[in-house]
Amino acid sequence: MQVSLEEISSLGRKLTITIPNDKIQSQVNNRLNSLKGSVKVDGFRPGKVPLNIIKQRHGAQVHQEVLVQEMQNSYQEAIIQEKLNPVTSPKIEPQEAQPGEDIVFVATLDIYPEFDLADFTALEVSLNVAEVKEENVDEALQRIQKQRMNWSPCEEKAEKGHRITIDFTGRLDGEEFEGGKAQDFAMVLGESNMIAGFEDPLFAMKVGEEKTFAVTFPEDYNNQSLAGKETEFDVKVKKLEKGELPEINEEFITSLGVDGTLETLRAEIRNSLEMEAKKQASSQAKQAVMKLLLDNHEFELPESMITQEVAALREQAQKNYQIEGASELGDDLFVDEAKQRVKLGLIVGQIVREHKLQVSQERVNGHIQDLARQYPDSQEVINYYTTNNQARAQVESLVMEEQVVDSVIEKVKVTENKIGFDEITKNL
Hints:
single chain, alpha+beta, Alpha-Beta Plaits, Chitinase A, domain 3, Trigger factor, domain 2, 11 helices, 11 strands, elongated
């Protein structure tokens, strides 16, 4: 095997690899001979089929299989010989060859950039820390009461806090649109998540009343066919109810699965809020550290990695927003985020290698336990992550990111920013 290496850019490399034809033919003959015992041809006993017949029938396929395998093997040998560290699979271009000539192919690839990690001890990061106060427990308890509100019919005009049940039909340019029609749709006025402009016309309506009004969908609405468009809705009020908060007594507390007094319930609520505050603080710490890493490292990014990430983001956009023809969307829509992801991935990988970080299986199991608690059959979830290597690998990747964040926080100067529980959870 002959190898020549060409530097086509700071990170781009081109390998021209020559495989002797004698080696290819030797491998082909060996494989064809190995088929003698299994090839069946009418008129010949098993194992007695002449080699020229086997070659006639299977020679082309065997030659192609050997060629692909030898190109893969030769490429792997070449990158070891030239001490290259590819970031993605290469682009392989076989050169035309006449029968009997040596096989020549070109492998184009990008290598990992070389860069030094920043001196983390010279960097500073501000991290949010939240304290759960009694007023937060009060608000959470009130939310639980509202979830168990006692509703009763009323003959009044609809107002904030009333639960209204309606039938509605939406039209765009006079035609009904998908997802714009519902029957017996219930919502609490002032607390719904309907688009702006839909709820206001419902105020002061009464049971049996009908109304038609216009609603303009927001420009950033996820359904592109409706984004920024003015539509028209026909609405009929079917039912109107007034709510009354349930009394917090022993029966109410027991219905929540709590065995104890109001103090026990409040303690459980506080514990849940503190866990949520810790979770959000951890998530925000990760964002702060990742931004710190991006801001304090500069190096060239491999183009092939950016291309792959752009394709992945485009595919994700198509799934999330149901964009038809997403493959035709320009790279400029995704390239900035792709570059950021690639850069961050390279930095994180460098930290893992230099600090010799190993995934904590204890933390992985802890994450799986947390996930399992969200489902009725927790053991089934645990078994899934125990037996499914791909699913477990996703959790391990998440845990490794957390360990990288912890490793950076241990070295940088940390400034704590004390904020309220409502502030740390405001974007939920």
